[in-house]
Amino acid sequence: MPLPFLTVDRGRAAATAAEPLPHEDEHRVPSYRPGPRRVGGAALLLLLAAYLLFSALIVVLAGSLVIAGVCVAVAAVVITVAVRLVRAGIRLSPLEQEADLPA
To answer: What is the pLDDT of residue 25?
Structure first.
């Protein structure tokens, strides 16, 4: 059973594959794919942050704003660590760092 939406894309892909890319000779940054341990660790940290924020809500309802502020601050730190854990491997080559500088 032919799928017409796939065959149209193949025709376009074949037509554009013959054209050279405009900056094919430049250095490219390899795509960064964090491993399962980093993703799993970040997911667990985000789950912990969700529990911390929920506990801050309960503490606010109980009447202690100082302790709730501490819970929110700790949750913010945990969220920051989780995001940095997943994005820690992204680095630019020296050539691209020079290209980003204003002339």
So the answer is: 55
- Sequential DSSP letters for 52-86: HHHHHHHHHHHT-HHHHHHHHHHHHHHHHHHHHHH
The number of residues in the chain equals: 103
Say which amino acid occupies 86.
V
Q: Mean pLDDT for the chain?
A: 76
Q: Do the beta carbons of residue 27 and residue 93 sit within 8 Å?
A: yes
- In this structure, how many other beta carbons lie within 10 angstroms of the beta carbon of residue 19? 7
Tell me the backbone φ, ψ of residue 87, rounded to 5 degrees: -100, 15
Q: Are 58 and 10 in contact (CB under 8 A)?
A: no
Distance (Å, rounded) from C-alpha 60 to C-alpha 69?
A: 9
Q: Per residue in 20-44, pLDDT tens? A: 556 655 555 556 677 888 899 999 9
Q: Which residues contact 93 (CB under 8 A, 6 or more apart)?
A: 27, 29
What's the pLDDT score for residue 32?
65
